[in-house]
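Why does this matter for the project? Reviewers at the last site visit asked to see concrete outputs rather than summary tables. In response, this paragraph embeds two records directly. Each consists of the residue sequence and, immediately after it, the corresponding structure tokens. Nothing has been edited or filtered.
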Amino acid sequence: MIGVIFATMAEAGPFLSLSQAIPVDDKPLRVFKVPARPNLLVTVSGMGKVAAALACQTQIREYKVEEIVNAGACGSLQSGPGYAAGAVFCIATAVEGDHEIFGEAPLPIISDGKIDWDQRAARLITCDRPVFDDAQRQALSATADLVDMEGAAIARTAAMYKTPWTMIKGVTDTAGASDRATLNKYLAKVSEKIGKLLWERLKTT
């Protein structure tokens, strides 16, 4: 069983439509199954680390998922056309950010999933709040290429349960001070791109 986790319905919508997924639960999480691929389970967690970790744990413990896929939007911390809005990456490592550190900083978690997305690899950092700040973006760029609000929590939870994980992320903005409008402009396009890529890969997996 493969478990797919999206943060929001806006991100999940194209994949749910393409796969003709049907809802099977909505409390505390929105859960969907794919009749054409009984080995697929989709969860819409809600935004943030806590919601994402809960979704991952629920998939593993209650639905017996054997591999986790996190998909959705992210911001870019690097410059250049390769990191512009619309670019898609698979995640090589994920690490938690913007939190109090007592002792040593958390180490990046290395993706160990079996699914090959055939996309350029990137490093992800996960923050508690959206990053729309030039100074914070500059600081985070030394550690990672992309930023989101869920990925590292999913990676850490999956690793605790010794469950392989992969991630596929699409850039909606460059995490700058004026990029809220850019995110809204590109979210639907990026979600559609991710949905198509995800379904093409998973419908035969």
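We now turn to the second protein, recorded in exactly the same manner.
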Amino acid sequence: MTHQFLQQLIEGDELYTRVHKKVAPDESQGWTIVLMDRATRFIWDMQCGRKDRKLFKKAIALLCQVIEQTGDLTLLTDGERRYGSLLFELCSQALRNGKRGRPKKTLRKGVKVRLKNKGSQRHKRGPKRPKYQAPYPEHPDTAQPIATTEMHANHLEAFHTSLRRRCAAYRRRTNMYAKHTGRLQERLDVYGMVHNFVRVHFTTRQVPAVALGVLEYGLSLNAIFFIQTIA
């Protein structure tokens, strides 16, 4: 990706399916993390595996590469705090203001994280907590133009519904699940490639890669098979 992006509004969420056999969700290898740009519907990452720190860190590491190419990036999640914590761990910077003492760490300038506060319901005691919150301190020069109504992952939830309909491994109440994680990841790689570079999205009326500016026109399946790669 050699382009310079002005703004990225990315939604992050997880999708679950079973692999090989039915086990407890904490032990399942079928958790899938998806990071998708809201404006263009471009999928930055789809990784499957066990829902642990390693899986989240792999997805956030790719997101850090995107941050290097943009001046404004916002990550919206559904309440999973590991998105924000790992992003803060990998992409934080020391805020040097000339004062004595250890400088305070913040997210990089232009980077924002908003997550849904699952405990936002009103309790018997105390005021109602905000529905969305910033889990970690942000740079004071970072603009805050996000309205509360825009803090959601609805587009990614719609993508999950489409993925369950198109990919049998994610279809509920069926025995057509993946036999192991490697096969499931292969299906995700193929699905992500077709979604980003071949299929025209029905809402934007464009191929996501074209809408993002990565390509001038969408590719065909035949063109993808004829692409030469260096081993």
